[in-house]
Amino acid sequence: MERDLLVEIGTEEMPASFLEPAIKQIKDFSVDYFEKNYLRYSDLKVWATPRRLVIYVEKLKDFQESQEEEIRGPAAHIAYKDGEWTDVAKKFAEQNKADLKDLIIKDTSKGRYVFLKRVREGKPTIEIIQSFVVDMLKSIRFPKMMKWGNVNFTFGRPIRWILSLYGDELVPISVAGVNSSKYTRPPRFYLRSFIEVSDATKYLDILRENFVIVDHIERKDNILKQIKEIAEANSLILDYDAELLDEVNFLVEYPTALLGHFDERYLKLPDIVLKVTLEKKQRYFPLRNEDGNLVNRFIVIRNGTKEYADIVIEGNERVLKARLADAEYYFNEDIKNPLESYTSKLEGIIFQEKLGTIKDKVERVKKIVYEISRILSLSEDETKILVRCVDLYKADLGTLMVSEYPELHAIMGSIYAKISGEKEPIPTIIGEYIYPRTLDEKIPSHYLASLLGIADRIDSLAGYFFLGLFPTGSEDPIGLRRITGGLLKIFLESDIRLSIKELLEYAWKVYGFGESRDRLYQGFIFIGQRLRNILLDMYPLEVVESVLSVDFDPLWKTKRRIAFIIETKKDPNFNSVVKAFNRLYRILPKELTLKEIRPELFVSNYEKKLYEDFVKIKNDLEKDLEKGDYLNLFKHELLITFANDIEAFFDNVLVMSPNEDEKNNRLSLIWNIKTFLWEFCDWSKLS
Does the keyword section mention ATP-binding (predicted)? Predict the structure, then answer.
């Protein structure tokens, strides 16, 4: 027999950002728990609203699956003698409540042993569900955990009710002082205290009748349908970030879309200011006309029905008017002065308590920019532009607008730079240096903006590394993963030939951190791990490990090594070449005192030919290696011959010769060849 399982955890309103991660955690835990406990079902769903976390399991079997088990007993030679079970065997059977006929003898790696083989009957599912719910709730980790009342339990928000049904049967559960029942609660705007759910299969319909759309996917589709209908009815175009739809979806239980207006005068504000005010501050959906311009209308999602819609719209319009009036004031005040004038305020803005002010950071970044200019041999004009950008790129932090709208940093700097008369590409560079803020965003379109972005991130990383502010588990309060991810993406999607390690070493000196390098080297490891995670989303494991075993820095070479492996794997000779190269890895001692190769000590023609071909290939490809032109290895006319030379050498030459000079000379030859090939990748990681 099978029934549907329903568990609804009712809470006080959860922040929208808590719910998506919670859904995943609950789903992963539940699937794993049911698998380990042999509970079979047809489908498992997890839903969420601001006040509910719901698990719904379809066609869950009434009993655990029966399981065959084997229990190892005593050694066969003491449990079975002369064709009879001994007292030792009888005691083993008795302890496990089994008959002697259930005992068998099996061979194992440790000898012959007696085993008890039997079928363990499954427990009733309802008994297991009780502990499942408690364990599941204890397993969830929210960004912030709360403790309430005198209850010794923490959760994202206080738990207020638990609805738990297996079919029509109540599952008795007690968590955080709350006992389960057959009752749920309506949304706050609906004047009923409790709603009875008689059977799990009726749950969704009962909640829908009482103005709760539990399924967040259905709810999201419902919101999207409503806002599209309003936009189309008014011949307007929706313009919103996907994150806004997700956030609003988890702020409501019963969405109703309403159209509001604001004064046309606010359309004179920069487009981005309007958009951020509507989306980020108010969580409204902006609208554009057919020309792509924002219009003085917006869509708000109400948590409730259309009742009193006019009053709701009026209230939202009033709040938005105050927001826009503030933004208008900030903007008009800011543009009374040139952007450069705000740099004086940077001395009073802390970058990090132990790393100084924003003004201090700007001065450090300027030194890093000069170093980048020297390394890349930038022109005098490029250097002047970049230095001017450094002088201005943090200035908007001193403006009223960015003080109130910190998410507009750099964007407002770019707008104010244009208004202040700064010539291109300075406004563009100032506006783009912050990108990418996530791995989903594009890198700057302007080369110099990428360089400024690199310098800014290098300064931040060096300082944070020195302070040891590394992420722990899921906690990353300083955003080190984000900063590192942005830095790596710039390098991965450009051909900027800089060394991250060398720049960090330079920044370390600029800070004046002294000779201690332990935290810096820890930082190198952190960057390498972050890069590995990014690359694993793009390339096969063996390719990533083969390349990163060599080094991740400089990244322009790492990219070319990856391209080299992917391309050469298509070569029909790839497998035979890799097989030959891998023989070099197996024979070298861990501790090897190297000496120079002495050709006069070669005895065999096999080692002489290997050496000659190696020298030829090495000399031919030396400049290619410097330029990262790794593909030329597989284009070299001697490649196959060279691979065959290696095979022949190992098949016919005694490397570990009793003659010490011969042995050391051969090991030196192998080490030199391996070191040369290591410039391409770690061949031992490739199959």
Answer: yes
- Region 325-329: what's the mean pLDDT? 98
Q: Residue for token digits 């370390």?
A: 508
Handedness of CA 602, 605, 606, 611 (dihedral sign): positive
Indicate the SS3 state at residue 623.
helix
CA dihedral 243, 249, 252, 257 (to 10 degrees): 90
Q: Is the dihedral of CA 496, 501, 504, 510 positive or negative?
A: negative
Which residues, in sequence order, are bridge partners of residue 371? none
E runs forming strands in 363-449: none
Determine whether domain 568-685 maps to CATH 3.40.50.
no
**Beta strand extents in 262-408 (DSSP E only):** 285-288, 294-303, 350-352, 356-357
* Nearest 10 degrees: Cα torsion 617, 622, 623, 624: 60
Which CB contacts under 8 angstroms, 24+ apart, belong to 137-144? Answer: 137/9, 137/175, 139/25, 139/29, 140/22, 140/25, 140/26, 140/29, 141/25, 141/474, 142/18, 142/21, 142/22, 143/15, 143/17, 143/18, 143/21
In angstroms, the CA 424 to CA 417 distance is 9
Name the residue with tokens 């007696």. 114
Angle between helices 480-492 and 447-467 (to 10 degrees): 150
Q: What is the pLDDT of residue 565?
A: 92
Length of the chain: 687
Enter the CATH code of domain 2-64+124-209. Answer: 3.30.70
Q: Which pLDDT score is estimated for 539? A: 95
The C-alpha atoms of residue 489 and residue 500 are separated, in whole angstroms, by 12
Distance of CA 627 to the CA centre of its chain: 32
The answer on pLDDT for 462 being more than 90 is: yes
CA distances from 427 to 368, 433, 445 (A): 20, 10, 13
Domain layout of the chain by residue ranges: 2-64+124-209, 67-120, 216-334, 339-538, 568-685
Best CA proximity match to 66, nearest among 124, 127, 120: 120
Which residue is it, tokens 């509507």?
278
Q: Is the dihedral of CA 219, 225, 228, 230 positive or negative?
A: negative
The tally of CA atoms less than 13 A away on the side-chain side of residue 347 is 2
pLDDT given at position 102: 79
Rounded Cα gap, residues 113 and 106, in angstroms: 6
CA distance 161 to 353: 44
pLDDT value, residue 96: 83
The larger pLDDT score, comparing residue 57 to residue 633, is at 57
Is 72 a residue whose pLDDT tops 90? no
Rounded Cα distance between 594 and 289, Å, is 74
Whether 315 contacts 352, CB under 8 Å = no
CATH architecture of 339-538: Orthogonal Bundle (1.10)
Distance CA 112, CA 104 (A): 10
Give the H/E segment covering residue 586.
helix 574-587
Going 663 to 669 to 674 to 679, the CA torsion angle's sign is positive
Please, which pLDDT band fits residue 587 given cuts at 50, 70 and 90? confident
Contact 57, 136 (CB under 8 A): no
**Chain centre to alpha carbon of residue 23:** 17
Query: What's the token pair of residue 321?
Result: 């008017």
Residue 580: which of 642, 663, 495, 667 has the closest Cα?
642
CA distance 156 to 51: 11
User: Does the pLDDT value for residue 18 go beyond 90?
Assistant: yes
